[in-house]
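During the no-cost extension, the postdoctoral fellow (Dr. R.K.) reprocessed legacy sequence entries with the updated structure-token encoder. One reprocessed record is reproduced below for audit purposes.
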Amino acid sequence: MPSHPQEPDRAASDPVGPVPEGAVRPPRGDLPQPGPPTRPEAANGEPGPDAADPAPTEDEYTTAIQELEDRWRRALADLDNLRKRHARELERERAVERSRTAAAFLPVLDNLELALTHAGADPGAIVEGIRAVRDQAVNVLELLGYPRHAETGVAFDPAQHEVVGVVQDPDAPPGTVVEVLRPGYGDGERQLRPAAVTVAKRE
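Re-encoded structure tokens follow.
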């Protein structure tokens, strides 16, 4: 008779034995058992990037605030020291500039005193001496950056001239300076004063 292969005995291979219909078969010992979920860790055993960092404590917040306050106070102190140092340097520069300007006029005063000493001499020589002292003072102002303006026959410029009178002059074009009553000194932002002038009247 032909022989048929025999099926393996499931009961012999399964130590648990037959399971009644409708019941849940218990897990076998040779299969991995599910366990509690674990947090992802790096290869060296350190917590992974998804691991939550511990929250800062109240003492850590207080320490951080104190450090910021200390840095703020030091910054304010440095700023105040810088302001005081700048004020001292500015005052020193002003004093140096005043001293330089006053020293530049000392020769002018010396020449005026010399002219007064010779007041009893020839009147013509006194006039020439005073004119020379005037020219010296004008030169000092020009060296300091304040040139003299006393030109006539030029067009009226409101930035350099101050009108104190208007005259009828047939020989002068309208709107030109006819006479300078008081010279001006300086230009633009470095102007000490404008020239006081009379201007020809427009027809």
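Residues 146 and 187 are 7 Å apart (CA to CA). Strands lie at 148-149, 161-167, 177-182, 184-185, 195-200. The remaining legacy entries will be reprocessed before the final report is submitted.
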